[in-house]
Design goal:
Layout lengths: L1 H31 L5 H4 L5 E9 L10 E6 L4 E5 L5 E7 L1 E8 L6 E7 L4 E3 L2 E2 L11 E10 L10 E6 L2 E7 L5 E8 L1 E8 L8 E7 L5 E2 L4 E4 L25
Parallel strand pairs: 1-7, 1-8, 9-16
Antiparallel strand pairs: 1-4, 2-3, 2-5, 5-6, 9-12, 10-11, 10-13, 13-14, 14-15
Amino acid sequence: MRNKTTILLSLFAVICMVIIGCSSGSNSSLSGGNWVGLSGASATVNYATLTGIITDENGQPLENVYVRILSASMVTDSAITDSTGRYQISMPSGAYTVTIQRNGYASIIEEVVLADDEVRVYSTSISTVAAPTEPVNANIIGTVLLNATSEVLPNITVALTKDGKALATTTTTTEGKFIFQNYTTGMYSVALSDAEKKYVPTTYVIHILNDGKLSPELPKLYLSARTIEEEDTEVYFDKVTGTIYDDF
């Protein structure tokens, strides 16, 4: 009996050693592998900074000047100059259109390309303009394109609003173009959608500046194709025939 007990205890000890060894080996293998956490999966965005001082024609700093930066893909940000005429905007690196505007002054539109981690100093002066005797009117013209391929999109519904008030609706031509005629200075929202719901509805902002120019000039507005979602998918099942019997 004692021999059997000794054998059983020895066998149990060997089994425990095997289990511990396997567990240790597994942990060693996991810790030695190449594991990528959430931080490794995230994309890195490199930012650049645009800064400067806006002055009048006499070199005096101007406060409350509106500075807007806009990329071709409609990534945008803006800033207002302080009492020293200074502004600063941080954006992902890339090519941008910079618009500088203040009531009573001529607007300026410039193109800039910002590199990774660059601090670009852009200072300029703007000149006063005589107040117009009549309101400045302009046409809002643009082109709607597919984001993935830049092909023009016809038959897209374009709705124009200002301060939340609906103004007009039109449809893009076969060349993807639209126009709204004779609108005064200010900020307008342009909403894009399609009746077939093939594209993601998107809204853009377009400015009519004091001198009648558009910001951005002749804007290209992009739509993205809608992905197929579960609720948009119809599922069909094969017809099943047979006889159902009660339990007995």
